[in-house]
């Protein structure tokens, strides 16, 4: 009998039960204020991963040798961010309950909140490492508390002061930047303080959220609000390597926008980064 | 003293007080389920109108000779359709209060609901002429009552049976098409029944809502859910001519998606249609 | 336990065993002489079908009510057309052996040859209905016998004279057009002779091959060698309706090229056509 | 010794001396008021012609059987329309002097003026057939007498009243349309009056200028100022057939804009049209 | 009474009279020799600035706290560079007369000449800082003295030897590069000599002209003649910081070409640079 | 008599007999496994070179002063890699026989094999310098021995152990990378070992093959399989300078894919690189 040729991120075709990491897409960009499109990111990565190698010369490891399950994309309602976050939370909780690591692919950055809600149920002491060009610390945006521009503030509502470590930040409103000085650790423009953070976070459960626009616009133009003056691919890779020995209990990668990536180069970079992160984080 | 070179739809640069029609953009596409982008429609029309003539050889009339005010774009929150609709309603009400005709440029089709709410306050007997490829009569979509796919059903909530006349319809779920048979007048694929409708609507206040995907995909590819088998530009123009003697108290034109219009031809068509409608409806 | 959200053409998510039609992608464009890209067609249709309705107002039928299996895409080697055709033949044969109808989505038109080889094993009396802008009757192209430009000639090698009925043809070399006069039935530009063909083919096993460039360039620009002067969507739909009572034992739809379809309108049309064909052919 | 593989419009690779028609590109779009790009038209046609057949099933004739010389592109200065026109005039004059027919590929429509200047030196009695969406009869545009929007008016300066026959016109300023009523023959929207014109022009030297935006936007979106409501490809082809027995002493085809033709379908149509015109006009 | 929602660069919505800097667009690309499109730059920046923050973490300053007037775009004739430059000169003169700083957004680089003409009327001792990949020192280009490739030579006609300081240059004809050695100060590839220039220019009136292609192609691909081997965003930002204490009496930023920026990343960078320059230069 | 304006890479318009280097296009991408398009590279470079300067400020040399012949593009069959390679071999052999240096512009990387076959006939002792992101050392790919992914392995079949020096490698299967350790010299990520290689190769005949994806994705997005973490333009330029004194007997530059380069920046970079290489290698 013929079987369907299943469409999966390359090298992530293990069974759910045997897998330690579960990748899934959260195709939501309903609050994106300028140019939407991140809803297509996980699907594009699935397609583009076809041209990626499963082997990493950086780590001398191979995706074929680790167990990862690609669960496909959630089906989220666009006009209702509250409900979308709920569905993400439920899904993430199930993965966590089975003692696996959820690795969510956004979507806009707001999706992170759904996953963080799930993780904080389990890990009261959760800390967050946040790579981004934007501080995302507004209390509301255009009158809305749930937005890509408020998501880290909403996470702070859950974890509180001194639990969030931001890197690569180079954009924000005056108000949120000033607020951030008192409530989170912000490293502007680069990863210079990362060793310090790693030291503090040594024994803590950590959530890693990567907004891909932390990368320089030259390196990653395919995103809705690109910010010049960012980090290179190698700098990001080294930063991930540095934190990979921490106890990362869940993670995400957001804000790839395939309609803004006509050459496909940003999507290809996201695939490669996904591979490297999986190989670094897996144990 | 230097004055700003104001950015306005060509020929719509009159003062508000002297104008009889008020054009405004409702740049909202927050519930778009597949490919967003209609939020940029009014802005694109404003830019592209620069290359349009103000004179219509079809009607031997000129935009320069009538008084229209282009109010620019509303600023709507993307993650909150209820609030976006509210703002549209308030804005439309103000125009209507001043005894002018609001002409809204979407955005996704959901924006129509905001304007219809405003109009039904004034015209209890409101009837709706609806040009579209999709019947938009679902009761909910992905669990949401407010959606581009439910908008005409929500309008029906306000105006009731036998008040809505649909033309050009060629797509829908089985359920909504069957529901429509009992509650609205639907003319599939074309404008064949239009004379009949004009006859019935002769003395009624009418809201005209045009989803531009009523046009064939060849004529109007620049939209999120193009549907083959639609009408030509000349057929649409003739239909508008036919109804232009009715008492049109408000109207809209929705679903142009500039990011899906790389040649600019769909945007140019929308500009031309806008001119023809303004010249037909103005009196 | 979590299950993968499987990525399938909308409404084609039945089990293999219960299905009567098996859709599969043959992502091959290795002989395309000018602008490649059809290899991405089936994948694009799978993505885009998300925004399609399963219900057809044209036929008052619903994909939800019939059993179709989407087998995903074959994995074909690009530099070796002979081997690619072999794999298509083997796959098609298996479907036919199980008394199901294979519905292949190209890829360039050459893929048809693989399926026809499988079908002629079973149906010695096979006839072919061929909708296309190009006659594809060359004996070789740039020295190669296996090419998108020779595919129907290669099919003629298998079925012989008076078995092939071409419609919509409006391009070819002088030599192949003259050759065609003696060996196949060619209806230029349109479907005018279709009734005649239907009459002849009444009791024959029929293979239907649709090169989507039979459509006018306005209707279907998203293809590698668009030809002006073609048929409309409604004309194509009517032609398919006319032949849908014949004994169609296998079929295909080829030459959608997503990289040449930046608006997505050609892909959306292909989805709609796929739905209508499935509903017409299914019994 | 190796020879260069010369880059030429397919089938137009004859020597200059043996050719009766000389095709050349006039890559100028320096006065284009909105979206430039027609400067790339002739080059794009040269590239795209690679995928065109030299044989016409419409006429049962083949480019291989006639003698046409493709002279490549002129090198024109963008900021100086007067000088660009001069160069076009000189080049056209040389072709005419050698008793050949110049067939210029624009560029914006202004280039026509250079060729007409050359032709009127030889043919004092020149008449012009003008296919276009726009009447191009302004006396000046943004203060400039030389512009794509004034080009036919400038031609009128040379040939005078009742010598210009326009077809397909559907856009213009009120002033130019009114002016046209008294000085040229204008057939709006279509080719309905063409027989009448053919009759008048029977024994006259004729210049044929085709602005490709005479075609409907669905058929030809790849142009800077597309106008809905135009003619189909078959209508244009029939019109050309009708006038092909006139004494056409020079001709042009303008306003293809490749940057606005991401699918390539408009360029492909221009290639096919070029082939058909060459085969019709050649004797 | 309703007011128009004015379309302005974010944070540049002050009144003319209270403003110290006046931003305006000079949408001219009429001499661009290869790929035009810079005419859309100012309009694109106006649209895209919507997604920019008004606050700069680099300077801890906010556009909301300074007074800048965005005057919109000039309306310039494309086929007549002399007249276009005249209009730019007149407009710039008016701003200067009111003791404000004109900040022009091109357009192609030629527009700089119009502004320089205005400034040299007031400041006989004017010096020019020129950031660019191309030296623009030709005496004529394709026979024309007014061209994007001759603009700095034309400025030299006005200011004379040793008044022009070029940085980042990495392209030019042999002739112009050799000519430059005797008449201007050229720093190739980077900003290494900038301190030297700042020292010399300490007490001089300075015009700053930035051709954005001084940036590396990776950082700024959205321009007509990108040149590999350029500077990074941070290097450009630091260079601007260094010169911001000079007496900058007028400035411009040219050569963004939105049609060549499908991802929007170059436009976003231009917005951010505009903000930083405004905050640096304002006093 | 009029002559054709020949379409040639700028500055490469010398006669064959007087030229020392012969540039030609090998427009083949028939085995490209993911996104094809490199077949258009040489043609795009020919067009784009129009906007390039012939003078290099890096070397103070000018293409006008050296003799290079641009032979245009070969015409290669897409479905038959063996035959395509044969044609490349024959063409390269002819150039070599005439004691000129062939400089091939791909196409996909597989084309290199055709040229290497020609060179190894003449130079039994041939060594290869290979700049690439991918090691291309697989023994077969999808069952095929001739593929862009196996090309350097096929070259190794001809030259044997210790003759191939790879630089910039950062992608490959585990198997090929391990195989490479024993048979070729591989420098990962950069050019660090280049001096060592130059030393060894001092007196050897050298073939230089540059897969342009050796560049970082930010620098060169316009290619089918971009790999983050690559070298900058200046690093590549310096590497070429370093090896330019070796005895380079033939060379190529592959994998530019114009359909993936919507801004044109990658094509412009390839033009500039071509100029610099020609000026470095020519003697």
TrEMBL record, chains A, B, C, D, E, F:
It comes from the Bacteria. The keyword Ribonucleoprotein does not apply. GO terms for molecular function: agmatinase activity; metal ion binding. Belongs to the arginase family. Agmatinase subfamily. Pfam families: Arginase. It comes from Herbinix hemicellulosilytica. GO terms for biological process: putrescine biosynthetic process from arginine, via agmatine. Keywords: Hydrolase, Manganese, Metal-binding. Binds 2 manganese ions per subunit. The lineage of its organism: Bacteria, Bacillati, Bacillota, Clostridia, Lachnospirales. Gene3D superfamilies: Ureohydrolase domain (3.40.800.10). This is Agmatinase. SUPFAM superfamilies: Arginase/deacetylase (SSF52768). Its cofactor is Mn(2+). The keyword Amino-acid biosynthesis does not apply. Its EC number is 3.5.3.11. Mn(2+) binds at residues 109, 132, 134, 136, 211, 213.
């Amino acid at each position: 009998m013929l079987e369907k040729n299943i469409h999966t991120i390359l090298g992530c075709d293990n069974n759910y039960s045997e897998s330690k990491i579960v990748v899934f897409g959260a195709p939501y960009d309903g609050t994106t204020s300028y140019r939407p499109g991140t809803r297509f990111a996980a699907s594009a990565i699935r397609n583009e991963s076809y041209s990626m190698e499963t082997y990493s010369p950086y780590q001398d490891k191979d995706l074929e040798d680790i167990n990862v399950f690609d669960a496909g994309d959630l089906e989220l309602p666009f006009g209702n961010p509250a409900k979308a976050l709920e569905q993400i939370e439920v899904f993430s909780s199930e993965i966590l309950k089975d003692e696996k690591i959820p690795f969510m692919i956004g979507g806009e950055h707001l999706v992170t909140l759904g996953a963080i809600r799930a993780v904080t149920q389990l890990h009261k002491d959760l800390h967050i490492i946040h790579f981004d060009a934007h501080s995302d610390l507004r209390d509301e945006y255009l009158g809305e508390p749930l937005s890509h521009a408020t998501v880290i503030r909403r996470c702070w509502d859950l974890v509180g002061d001194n639990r969030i470590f931001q890197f690569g930040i180079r954009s924000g409103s005056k108000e949120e930047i000033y607020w951030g000085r008192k409530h989170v650790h912000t490293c502007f423009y680069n990863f210079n303080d990362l060793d310090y953070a790693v030291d503090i976070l040594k024994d803590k459960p950590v959530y890693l959220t990567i907004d891909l626009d932390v990368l320089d616009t030259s390196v990653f133009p395919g995103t809705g609000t690109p910010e010049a003056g960012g980090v290179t691919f190698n700098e990001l890779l080294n930063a991930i390597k540095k934190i990979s020995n921490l106890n990362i209990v869940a993670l995400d990668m957001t804000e790839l926008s395939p309609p803004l990536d006509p050459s496909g180069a940003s999507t290809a970079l996201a695939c490669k980064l996904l591979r490297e992160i999986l190989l670094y984080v897996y144990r």
